[in-house]
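G., the chain you wanted modeled:
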Amino acid sequence: MRLTMRALGCLFLTSSIASGARAAPPNIVLILADDLGFTDTAPYGGEIPTPSISTLAEQGVMFTNYHTAASCAPTRGMLLTGVDSHLNGVPNIPEAIPPVQAEESSNYRGTLGENVVTIATLLKDAGYHTYMSGKWHLGKTPALLPSRRGFERTIAMADTGADNWEQKPYLPMYKKANWFGDGKEIELPKDFYSSKFLVDNMIEFIESNRADGKPFFSYVAFQAVHMPVQAPQEYTDKYMGTYDEGWSSLRERRLERAKALGIVPADTKLAPVSSTADWDSLTNEDKRYKSKEMAVYAGMIDAMDHHIGRLLEYLEDTEQYDNTVLIFTSDNGPEGTEVLTGARAIYLRLWFATHGYNMDYETLGTRGSFVDIGPSFGNAAASPLAYYKFFAHEGGMRVPMIIAGSMVANTGSVSNAFAYVTDLAPTILEIANVKPPAGSYQGREVEEIRGKSLIPLLTGQTDRAHEPDETIGYELAGNAALFKGDHKVVIDRGPVGDGEWHLFNFVTDPGEASDLKEEMPELFAEMMEEYRSYARDYQVLPVPDGYDQRKEVFRYVLRNNPDPMLLSIVAGLGVLIFFLAWRGVRAIRKRSSA
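Predicted structure as tokens:
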């Protein structure tokens, strides 16, 4: 019976979109994972069972060629406005914007500008209830919180990340974890676990107004699987031993499953990534530790999927599911940063010790534990794509995206059409039959939505959203790309990237294994000129010489949240090391002169 009703709903909604009329506007649920890799879920070739996400795939369209920004805040800004990150005020996370850029351009704030309107605002104007639960990271002052950007009810974590078990920051960028409820600071409950808490609140929001019959827009922005990677022990236990063969083996296995599922072409090849270590060179103890880190990561995805299932079950039980459109995606590719590396490691280890974090094997993932999977497993999580979060290669930008609901003509289908994050805003507005603002909103000038609605793809009217000659430019912290048709020019800065521009056919070669720059010099030159035009038109600023995102974040810590005690300890250690080295050199010189 449900399938029949959904089929009838598809015919009704397709025809109503075409005619511009609708009797019952659908509810819309937007679910955003954080740092989820391309093949981390079962429908995309992952080994982690994700039955709730698989249900959405069976009842919707899976997009295999959907791209975002390679970092969280720029994606979130574009997702909610349909406007390029360099025009909406969020070209990078605020913690990584160097002062020289912020001083040169008002667009380099890292917070959502007043020159854009969120889809939440537009949907609320059209009679929708609008709810948000989860990570915001688009501003934390009262005027910048989601409660002032169109959301009627909110539970919002305003930072780039936070602990999943307690109300505490995950890195010294913040003095506290900044959580807000309806625009006011809140205290988290003692039994807090992020994925459960966010779904609990979203269900409460929806239920509070269910009786009035108005449609709702729900934005659920999980912390999973952003660092610190943490999961209830019973979820981690499921995956102990799963990753004992290492990251290269995992990357190969996921590639083969993705091929078998038709997620990538059958001849897709893996490109080497310089930051991937040799698994066989690790000690047995290091292999054991790394394997468990990845088991925690898998457990966190499993737990997120479970709580997504709770939301779906609530909608089913309250007979709202059949009139709900559900969108599931990720803000960018998997995290590949190891925080305890380089000169900053001493400071961070001291900070961990004073803030209740440990990295003990026995308790990995539980309360008080800090886990990051690092670049090698990070690249495997994006398999068969190259690189990961922050990088403009496919591993940083191409992520899973599923749209399920009554407007989907071919449920359980796969779309290979190129889509971009700015396409979701016009898609959501068209689903709700709401027109985007044409250059102005309530008497003020605003940027126009640049994306294209994906409704024609969902209803089977077309097989592509963007014309072959259309260009879409992108830049984040000096890593950049331009998409045109099936091709892409891309550059990633060092030390992980090579600092050179490349040309790929990202449709036939999603692993970016074959550079076409020498083979197709005219197309390469043409697309490079188009990228330069994009950079001019969208006011892209160059990064300063020697810019390094991780170092810039550490400078942000020292500028905004310095801990005098820790700095004194680090300085003292530095003096001690210098003194011991000086004494050693002096002793050597004495012996050589004797």
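The chain has 18 helices and 18 strands.

Shout if anything looks off.
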